[in-house]
Structures are given as C-alpha cells and as structure tokens.
Structure prediction request, 151 residues.
Amino acid sequence: MTFEPAEDHIVVLESFADPITAHLAKSRLEAEQIPCFLTNENLVSLNRLYGPASGGVRLHVREQDVAAAVEILRYETVPMTASRAEDEPQPDIVHCPRCDSTDVAFGPATRNTYSFPMLMLSVLLGYPLRGKRYHCFHCRHEFKRSEVENL
Prediction:
C-alpha cells in the first residue's frame, strides 16, 4: 500500500504594484493561519518598470484557501502608508504682517540683517553670515516669526 499526499493546487490570489503592499497583504493572511508566498518580488524591487510587464508582485495561496483569503483582504484594506493624511497635523499658515499674503517662505535672508555679533563674525570669517527669515513673495517684506505672533 502506497501513501500519496494530497496535491495542493497553488493559485495567484492577487497582484500588487509594489513589494511593501504585497508583504502587508501576506502578513494579514499569515495572521489568519493561511499559508501563502510571494513571487516576482525581487524583480519589481530592482526596477519598477518591470512590474507591469511581469505582472507585479504576485501573492499565491492554496486553491482551498482562496475564498477565506479573498474575504480577509476584501474587508481589511492594505494601507499604502502607516498614517492617514487626516491624522497628520496641518502646518501653520504664515501670513505676511504687511500685506497679509500667504505666499511666504522661510529661508536665508535676502537683505542684510546683521546684528553686531553676526557682523563681527562675518568680518572675521571673511564671508557674510545671514540669519534665516520669512520672505513674502507678494510685497518682498522679510520678517521673523516673532513679528507674526505678536500681531
């Protein structure tokens, strides 16, 4: 009498554009005790242009686990990032104190804004040292953050 193991047919459950998303889906299935594996992961990782041509990163499961795996991945979406955009704090919008424009950027000052110690250090080093300030592109006014907070 010979023992013949039952053949498990392996099928492609889903194809992903990037390896990270595929690993997240694989982890979800493994957490539910569904054995699975990925193929084409290294090919897509090396060059993103090969992804569409090769069919992306493929998630394989046994044929008997397809229905359960589809249900798990259907109701538990695989996120692309760890946090949602609405969870992130919105940056403060800085308004120009002169014209109230929001077309403002922070960077090196374009006009001479020397204090006495900065002037002395610039003379000793031989090149100008300028502080950073906010610059309004609408009226060309430069200001510090403290000027905005005092208004």
